[in-house]
Amino acid sequence: MGRWPIFLAHFPGPDGGVGACGVRDGLAMRETLLKLLEGEVGALGCELVELEFHAHRGGGLLRIYIDRAGSAAPDGVTVEDCEAVSRRVSAVLDAADPIKSEYTLEVSSPGFDRPLRTEAHFARYLGSRVHVETALPRDGRRRWTGRLVAAAAGRVTLEVDGKTVEFGLGEIKTARLVPDFGARRE
């Protein structure tokens, strides 16, 4: 996809210890995990929305966000969905062994502030408020919050403070829905 990762990961160094890896290594690992797991998650009727890897000395955390395929299921993700995906993903990761250090696997629903990763994710939530963080600053800022007005041809358009701002998917480091919980009580 050419997108920046939602994480900068620390993966095992040549000596087997946990060492910091550069953006390219983090991107390569992210793409490897996405390619390895998207089809497996899809085979269970779910969609791999996003993944994060947080490494630390002595291990790491691989968090996978899933949703029912197409996000049309009225009940959303169930505990049983998470369990089935966890078992399947664990088996695939054990066989392929892309992460050489110990880690904990978590499988979760995307939540109210769900991550947006693909053009289809953005298109599904047209009209919603989103928060976008770009990889590089534009007009002196990297964080943008506004109404999502378009998502097509690898571009995302927000209305921010009455102005239209357009981003290429490759410029976006992270993007999430901004939940609307209605009017605040005083």
How would you describe what is shown here?
By secondary structure, the chain is of the alpha+beta class. It has two domains: 10-108, RimP-like superfamily, N-terminal (GMP Synthetase, Chain A, domain 3); 119-177, Roll (SH3 type barrels). The protein is 24% helix and 39% strand. It is built from three helices and ten strands, in the order ββαββαβαβββββ. It has helices spanning 23-42, 79-96, 119-124; strands at residues 10-12, 18-20, 46-56, 59-68, 104-108, 129-138, 141-152, 155-160, 163-168, 172-177. The strands form three sheets. A five-stranded antiparallel beta sheet has the order 9-8-7-6-10. Strand 6 and strand 7 form a beta hairpin. Helix 1 packs across helix 2 (79-96). The longest helix is centred in the first third of the chain and has 20 residues, at 23-42. Residues 1-24 have low confidence and may be disordered.
